[in-house]
Amino acid sequence: MAENKTNNRTQKKRFRFGKNEHVWKFARIGGVNRVSLESGRDLVELESLDQKLWTALSCPVYGLEIDERTLELIDKNHDGRIRVPEILAAVKWAVASVKNPDDYLKSNEVLPLSAINDSTPEGKLLLDSARRILSNLGKPDATELSVAETSNTAAIFADTQFNGDGVITEESSSDESLKKIINDIIKCIGAADDLSGKQGVTQEQIDEFYRQCSAFSEWQGKAEADTSLILPYGEMTADAFEAFTRVKAKIEDYFLRCRLAEFDEESAVVLNALHGTYEAIKTKDIAASMGDISDLPIAKIEPGKALSLVKGVNPAWEEALSNFDKLVVQPKLSGKKSLSEEEWKQLASNFDAYQTWLAEKDGSAVESLGLESIRELLAGNTQEELSRLIAQDLELAEDTKNIMLVDQLARYYRDLYTLLNNYVTFCDFYSPDMEAIFQSGHLYIDQRRCDLCIRVNDMPKHDMMARSSGICLIYCNCTLRNQTEEKMTIVVALTDGDFDNIEVGRNALFYDKQGRDWDATIIKVLENPISIRQAFWSPYRRMAKFISTQIEKFAASKDKQVEESTLSKVEASGKQIEATSSGTAAAPVAPPPPFDIAKFVGIFAAISLALGAIGSVIVSILTGFLSLTWWKMPLAILGVMLCISGPSMLLAWLKLRKRNLTPVLDANGWAINARVSINIIFGKTLTSLASLPDNSRLNLKDPFAKKRNPFIPIIIALIIAALCALFLLWRFGYVQLPFTGA
């Protein structure tokens, strides 16, 4: 154990101080030291970068603004998440497949053939496959490939007989009989999609088709081996059994009722009491009431009575019983006009072996082909010929794999560096001219554009985790404005402006990265500080809202009192008028209470004392304020405002500098390894407020503005002037105020 530790320390020391040590560059972004991927060498050495320095350790494959097919190719275990080992494997293969790893930093849409590293056997195969793709596309002289071309397998394999995907189509054979069988397999068993875009069949589907054919032939052979037992009516057995099944339950019900009537003759009266049914349908159209009539017994119930096949039959069952008589009864009991219970049981037993045989039926998927055609197929060697075509197709599997690898390389050439900038480091998120792959579009609401919009994959997880982000978040249900009515949910960060008009139910407009516009409706709000400016005005807005609410409550209560008082007086007057008109004495109305002068004086004295106290406070404030020198007065006003708004601003500042996007991304399936901070300065770049364009002109004359009343400002100015004059007179001793004590 000690020796192993010593060897590990030696290896670490060699890595740190060896000649080939790679120098990583880091930048302080969002309060975290993040690695900078600035060269192809950084990609080559990515495996040596400590994973503790990666920003993310896992991300989802779906719901990001990057080609999902590229992410699916990286996700080798197909679990819907991309982890660090898969990233490293993709980078290792990608840098080995090109001559210069620096090319990946360009994120080019096209892959030049000259960029492929043909110095390795795998690289040579990639280059040959790339040229084959261009040749199949009719561009043999082209020198570059795009992702649209490498992924267009229908065009690449359109004129090829075999393509190595293990699927054969009609074009895989020139034999018309084999083409017909391939179409029969598609019709009976199902189809598989060929790389050419056409429908074909796989070896598994071929094997299943011939298994069904063999099973169906063997099943039919059992009936042919013992025709008299299994097919008691020969070729008409199926029709006879259908006619038998149609009336079986009704005839068994009839014989059971007759036996019950034989057990108790009085029960026959009850069993034949059909008057209730007749009463229900007598006023209806009888032809339209056959459903009700069919519920009645098939014939009249009598003790021990045989079932007549020709008369006295329920009209709703005449046709079915006649068909049963023709196909089942007459071939076995010729000339019979009625059927006893024993005879019925004998006829029913004729179908026992047939029913057992039906239950064993196999190969029904190919039954539509007909027994003769099926046995012709089984007699030949067509199954081996089809399997031989499959084998020929699979011989090209390696070539097809290389063609698919060309598509993978073209996608990595375009998308890999973008993924790394949003995985190893969040460079794209913090770059002012870039957007991260988790940013899905822009939301316009309340004269602002919000750029940090993220698709929501798991709403319950967001409910649990997003609250700890400290970000003001709104959740919106979005509906695409087209005939498909596609829907999604997004979470939007408000990082600038105010919160006054944001509430559940408001509508907005969302634009995704493809430029499509979605109708958005707010379904949930997580309120947190948005800006320092909002925090400054927040106390005043709360105070104004409180005063407005109290005034509304006071006005509502007074309105209710007036309404109740008026209604009570009207009701009392109505009672008096009613009493007068009826000649009865009206109840005496209670006289109003006498005026209490002592109470009125007390109230007036209390009001005077309150006004005196308020006046003393105002005078003290004015005295202190006017005693200041002129340049201290603005500072005093500023100090008062800071006392009111300061705590709110300080609390907002503490929260804003701690905003963290990590919980929001974690709720979406990411595994974030480093803090993703959104400070005040960066937050302003994520939300754009409305502003007038450059070189625009503004006409401040609003024709609908409220008309100003000049008397109100004049009165206010006179009151202020009078108070100032009174204060000066008191200050210099010309007057004495009773509440000053001087």
Structural features, described:
The chain is built from 28 helices and 19 strands. With 742 residues, the protein is α+β, with helices and mostly antiparallel strands. Among the domains are: 183 residues, no CATH class; 83 residues, no CATH class; 118 residues, no CATH class; 122 residues, no CATH class. The protein has an eight-stranded antiparallel beta sheet with strand order 13-15-14-17-16-11-12-19. A three-stranded antiparallel beta sheet has the order 4-3-18. Strands 1-2 form a two-stranded antiparallel ribbon. The protein starts with a helix and ends in an 11-residue tail after the last helix.
Q: What is the topological layout?
A:
Layout: H1 2-17, E1 25-29, E2 32-36, H2 40-44, E3 56-60, H3 68-74, E4 81-83, H4 84-96, E5 110-112, H5 121-136, E6 144-146, H6 147-150, H7 153-156, H8 176-188, E7 192-193, E8 199-200, H9 203-225, H10 227-230, H11 237-263, H12 265-271, H13 275-281, H14 290-294, E9 307-308, H15 318-332, E10 338-339, H16 341-349, H17 352-359, H18 371-379, H19 382-394, H20 397-421, H21 427-430, E11 441-444, E12 448-450, E13 453-455, H22 459-465, E14 472-480, E15 487-494, E16 507-512, E17 517-526, H23 532-582, H24 597-626, H25 633-656, H26 662-667, E18 671-672, H27 680-686, E19 687-689, H28 711-731
Antiparallel strand pairs: 1-2, 3-4, 3-18, 5-6, 7-8, 9-10, 11-12, 11-16, 12-19, 13-15, 14-15, 14-17, 16-17
Helix pairs in contact: 4-20, 5-20, 9-18, 9-19, 11-12, 11-15, 23-25
List keywords for this structure.
742 residues; 8-stranded antiparallel beta sheet; 3-stranded antiparallel beta sheet; 28 helices; disordered N terminus
